[in-house]
């Protein structure tokens, strides 16, 4: 059931994981990105999601990045650490490490090479939750995970497992938001993970928006969320209209590649993504630069 | 270009990776499975594919399984070792290990958390091929990998990269088989990885069929392939009709779970799949048992 | 040459690494130990030395422990993180991780399975130092490392390599302390790592004492060091006389086993050491309890 | 008690682990070394001892090397695979892998950062033995391991633990050989691991000699052992006199460095040892070349 840990709401910002030229974690750049997110008004920080190239890090690098993020934030914002792993044992180990290092909550996607059954997904999440005492945010993203969890499945996980308290929904289907609200009678904090749906989702009652966009345009994201909070529909619409092309671009090109390219354009050298991902081409960087400029309005 | 290594054809059999009760690799059961595949007339063995739970093994377990398979076969059949990994560096390392241990060829799927661009896929495969001297089989399976490589892309990889010599196509779209044959003027050995398409694919000129079914019904698969080879369409149709429900069941339920359950039913205790995968229920095992019986005809 | 980082002096306290019942890192107990060391007046904290069972941790656990220590201290005291590893590449990687996580300095012992030549030791330390910008403390302990570095070798490393700035000497030979002072004309901060030599070493000009004893008797160690600092020989002698039997016991029994047993006796459950190390027997614990009591005076 | 596995005797040859220029395992060179050892009349092959740089390999490389050795030998000679690891769990895992890959026996040294108690050593070996069904050779080498096991301790391990069946003694103290024979009433196969003691040890009843020398001078080692076996003391003395300077050199310089240098001199490029180990200098290689020539007589 939604419990004490479920106090996260608003803009949940996703940092990339910067690499040095020799392929290690670039802590200095990571800290610059985190400071930008904090200064830009983010409500929580979610390291080691897909934007953070979590799937491409070995467990030591993952631990190093989680620790560096939590330590540098020093309690300024809550953290929701991505602990997705192909095996249940691996995800539970990551969850324990995250808790030990001081994470506020963890987030998990049922990534799987194989189509999992409903029971397999349930047992997977139960095992992660049982490994820790901090809250778990379950995450549905069929495009990435290959598994689609219905609003009912998501709600039942929250209802039945003590420290599963939040849901992140990334299908981009607004009806699911409505269903989550109805099923939970409004008690479930659900987060939207689909950038194009940000405006609609807040209007449907989403507790927050999980997005990497504040890495590049923190002020616009803050202006948008401020408008949402004070019920200023006109401004929210206007800002969202301006940032939408950028949102679409970074998702389509791939978040690590696009956000790292955009960080370089905005003064934070974040290195290249890890192969097979390739850095943005010059043409892509030019387009991105234009979109960043255009988003300011 | 198709080169010396491309002498693999026929039934490419996929063993599961059996685990002991404490979670380690069960070499004894693995050897029993391999002997059944050899005795059943398989043409090649493909360990550490998705059936082999490759994605759920750590690199040491992966190495242990590759070595145990190659060693136990002792040259009786060629091996096509799955080296898929999320990172390019990881896939190249696996390819080098497989070659060092005596694999005949390697197979790679462009698994990725992120949608890769055509150029990213190409560079990924080129890096794997450049790491070794043995042939590479490129594998297209959008349902698992999240990326769909067109026949043209697949053919260009074979045409342009020296030791990429074979293609495995698992979309289940027979038109792609025809395209591969036409694009390559009949020079490209392509393999079908979609069980329901086995009959049609051979008729479209496939060099082989990649399948885990011989783990459970080696004699039926052999009878089917013998009929194909001698052009006995009637028998091929009849056998395929009998085994199709089983093929459909094991794919739908998930190959590791279903094949391990079926092995237990047919005298080889192969343990449970690794979590999040769950073992087959009693009802599923009963259904599978009936399907195995029915396949004999 | 001794540079900015070389401001560490006094009691360099060595925490153990506590394990939970299922073998993971026990962050809660680790934090209790660290707080005791800070409250007890330690001057610096040196996690992941031999007391910290560094050699028995995998790299992820090592990273987790380094991060948890640095995070929990939050700048209250400088840290000197042990980065010893059998391979040069491994030690350099640990050094980079420690620096990234915010360590004040690193310490390295030339642990080796093989007797290293003087040139091999020199290249090893140079590679570690080259990997980072924070200071390196080189550590001589032939009993553990199997290699004995002479005062001349140690001094030359400090003199010739930019960020090697400190020496820890654990042979228990007071003459080496005198030689280090003479060779460096008093400019080299050297630390004593031999518990029985603590008093003599300070009198020979040691900058500090590296010891796990404050885990168990922080007040006595503080009283001893306060007396040393104010030149109160009589008190220093008296306190040292009282604590010496305890110092001898914990070294002889093995620091992880003895200190973990002593922590349990003094209110901090720190779990068992990792096998092959065994926990203290009841008789050993009883003896240790008496020695702790006797040390209070 | 000495059981079926204890049929290893004679020259137990230690291959180095060759690396490619980019630091991976060089399987081709490894196979050349193994063929030389087999052709040179070795009785058994002991990969992954200290000569094999086992301590410098990660677990995947260790597995790869064990598998490649066992596969390439293909049953021509029994294998005794080194499974030493700092932790008990690590050594037991290696033992299970070795058994799974088809090793004839395993060998373990109680390597430890900390001085282990007699009980800790006993429990460590019991855990390794309990993990497998193949024989265990316990190995005493205080110079490397930092722990000295008395003949009585060694004998009691063999007497009390089912599949501990052999002892390797490397102190170079001939009296220990006599004690082992007496304690076991001649039933215990003990092996000498001290090169300078080879002649004396065989005369004291040693079952075999564990040595890397056949990598460089297989014919001389065979001539020596043939003379031992037929009781031709004069020839044994003469040959041993000629090879002794070489034996001394390779031990003193460090076996991986010296043997790899010697292999290059005798036609097998084995690459460099892993850092911190450095390759032999030109002067050392010249000296080694002379010693190889002189050993022929």
From TrEMBL, chains A, B, C, D:
Catalytic center residues: 139, 168
Pfam families: DHDPS (PF00701)
An annotated GO cellular component: cytosol
Domain of life: Bacteria
Keywords carried by this UniProt record: Lyase
Family from the record: Belongs to the DapA family.
Keyword Lyase found: yes
GO MF assignments: 4-hydroxy-tetrahydrodipicolinate synthase activity
SUPFAM superfamilies in the cross-refs: Aldolase
The protein's name in its UniProt record: Dihydrodipicolinate synthase family protein
Cross-referenced InterPro entries: Aldolase_TIM, DapA-like
UniProt-listed PANTHER family: 4-HYDROXY-2-OXOGLUTARATE ALDOLASE, MITOCHONDRIAL, DIHYDRODIPICOLINATE SYNTHASE
Binding residues annotated for pyruvate, in chain numbering: 51
